[in-house]
Every structure is written in C-alpha cells, then in structure tokens.
Amino acid sequence: MSIREIYEYYSREDVQKALLEIAKNREVVGVSINGSFLKRPDSINYPQDILALLKKGAVEFHCSIERWLNPTAITDADHMRIGWDLIFDIDCELFEHGKIATSVFIWGLKEHGIKNISIKFTGGSGFHIGIPWESIPKSIDYKDSKLLYPDLARKIIVYLKDFVSERLEKAFLANYSPEELASQVKKPLGLIMTDTGINPYQIVDIDPILVSPRHLFRMPYSLNAKTGLVSLPIDPEYLDDFKKEQADPKLVKTEVKFLKNFDENEAELLILKAIDWHAKREKLGKKISKKVVLKKRVEKENFPPCIKKILNGLADGRKRSVFILINFLRSLKWEWDDIENLMKEWNSKNTPPLRETYLTSQIRWHKRQNKTVLPANCLTDGWYKDFGVCEPDNICKGGTNEIKIKNPVNYPFKKMKK
User: Torsion angle, CA of 277/66/34/243, rounded to 10 degrees?
Assistant: First the structure.
C-alpha cells in the first residue's frame, strides 16, 4: 500500500471510531513498516492522535491485552492494571489451517459454557480469539483476578490446547493426509507424527509464553503492514465462509465488534477447569513408563502382518510407512545400518519408489532424535487401514473378532510368548 492509501484508510471516520473504541484503558503503540514499535508507553484518545502517529511512521496499531488505569504512565504493573482480556493467538503458516484451528477452539470454549466469543482475522494467515475481561470472575480462590495475569491466562491456554487436541487432530486429518500437512508446513513427516497420529501443534500453535506482561496484539481494524489487509473482526457464524479478500481495506465495513459482547462471569467454568487440570498434573508429577527391555533385535519372521505387507512394497501410504518402519524397527532393537539397508530394499519394491534424498533425510532426522517413539497405533484413523495393510491374524485378534493388539510393536511379544 502507498502512504496515501494508508492515510486514506485511517482517515475514515468509522475506522477511527473502531480503533478508539478498543483503545480505551489500553496501551496503544504505532508500528512502522519494518515492524519496529514507536514510543512506548503510548495511547490514543482522539482521531488526531491516530493521524499524528501516522506522520511518525505508523502503519499498524497494536494494543495491550491488559487494561490500565493510566496507559501512558505504567510503572507498577500490578498496581496500575485494572483488568485483562483472554486472547488466543492462532499462529499458522496457512490461512486454511488457521480457520480449522479457530473453529475447533471456538467449539472448546462453547463446551465450557462460553457463548460470547470474539474472533478476528490477523490480516496475515492466523486468527485471534478473544474473551473480554468482563466475562472473567473478579475473584478466583479469594485472589483478585486482575493480579493473576499472565499466569492464569497461560494456564487457561495450556489447558484448552490439551482439551481440544484430539478434535483438532481429527479436523486436520479430515481435510489433509499427514504427507500433505508435512509438505504444507515445510516440516519433516517424522516431526509432525506421534505414536497415535499427528501432533496438531506442529501445524498450528498458541504459545502461552507469548502471553506476558505488557504484551501487545494487532488491533481490530488495524492494517497488516506485510499484506496490506485489515485485521478484521468476524462473526463466528461466518468463519467457514470467510475469505482473505474480505479484509481488503476498500471493502471493509466496521460493523462487527471485538471483545464487546459478554455475560458476567461467563468464563468461570473454563477457569476452574483449567486450575483443577493443572493442580492434578502437578500432583501426578512425572510418569515413569515401564518398558520391556529387549536383549537382541526381533527378526522379520516375528513381525505383524501389517509390517510384512508394508515391506512387500506399496503404491499408497509410502511416506507414512517410512515413519512406521523406522520407529517399529528402532523399538525392536534394530541398528541404524540394518534399518537403512532394509529401508532401501523396501523402497525398491514401491511403485513408484520414494526419492532417495527423501528417504535419506528422514532416516537422518530420526537418527538425531534422542528418543525412540512407537509407530502409530493399530486403529488410529489415517494409518494402516487407510492404505490397506491391516490384515489382522489370530494373534492380532487374540481369539476374538476384534483387534486386541494396540500397537504393531506389541505383536512380536504376543507371538514369541505363544
């Protein structure tokens, strides 16, 4: 955008009104085209304050999560703070990933009885989800809530991430294969995989550490300097249909508000659940997993049917099978040289074979990891059944009609025990 276009946008009366509305009791800072902050602390109270910051080089406007008694004279944070909002910053590489994650987190908040949820497009690829200070109980465990920032906000974010994790994983896998996700976020497939599926927070994330004293976020109806789009509030009901083009400054209307609607104490259940969840985790401490120690490697004749079928070569599921095979073989005491040789032999049977550079890079990446993880569990969606290698035998079923083995690694122990 040209300087003239930026000035014209911020000269709009409706845009100025929207910025001033959210700016009340907040620190507001202008951000230049190169991303650097102008003077801090600062505030805006009148339209001319906005225009004055433009003349100093502001392109974006960021405001504080915290609300202050006097935003331009912040000294003692606890003494000056009069409240804080709960902001979930959905950080992602792809716009569509951000929409999926935002939808799932909205579901999680609704499950905790929160109806008044604000969302806005950041103008880039991510989204902000907001719960206003008015929804937060003013006293929690006989403590003044305004003094519990940022620790309480971080606890809520970590808890909600855990609460929605499984649903978020399923939402991604309903739209993309693991290989597509790895390619889209430009990460090794092994990095996004877990022993049960994928880690959705390798695709999108909400970093609770970023929730810190005097943390700022891009204001609703501010421009995004990198894209020229508006950080646009959206009605949650229309999230699925939202397109980036709607954030074009020429098309934007300032009708939807951010952090405006609330019911008093609406976030009480969410906060109590988050506190209880963290208390239980601290009480449990670190869990020590019990592992069977193998003295020597397990040979191929004791492998489960799915692994044997993979080793015969595949047309589909080859990249997922790299992750499966490496972790399966490592779990059964195979040395890296033997793994590499078997993987190359297996790849020659694939139709078509994976690129040798891809196979080598995956093996190299797994070698650098300090721990061995299990391959995906047997009944995890998107895995063995999905690419047609799940053919359970009597050992898998344990004499019943249902699969009893949880993970392919369990199979050799059952077989050798028999």
Answer: 60
pLDDT tens by residue, 83-116: 999 999 999 999 999 999 999 999 999 999 999 9
Please indicate whether residue 38 or residue 191 has the higher confidence score (pLDDT): 38
Checking if the pLDDT of 78 tops 70, the result is: no
Return d(Cα 312, Cα 107) in angstroms, integer: 43
Give pTM, 2 decimals: 0.79
Fold for the domain defined by 81-283: Alpha-Beta Plaits (3.30.70)
What does 70-108 look like in DSSP terms, one character per residue? SGGG--SHHHHEEEE-EEEEEEESSHHHHHHHHHHHHHH
Measure CA of the first residue to CA of the last residue in the chain; give whole Å: 72
- Which residue stretches of 189-335 are H helix? 189-192, 268-284, 305-311, 318-331
203 backbone φψ class: left, alpha, beta (φ>0; ψ -120 to 50): alpha
Least confident span in 41-45, 51-55, 146-150, 190-194? 190-194
Question: What is the average per-residue pLDDT within 289-302?
Answer: 74
Question: Per-domain residue ranges for the chain?
Answer: 81-283, 300-417
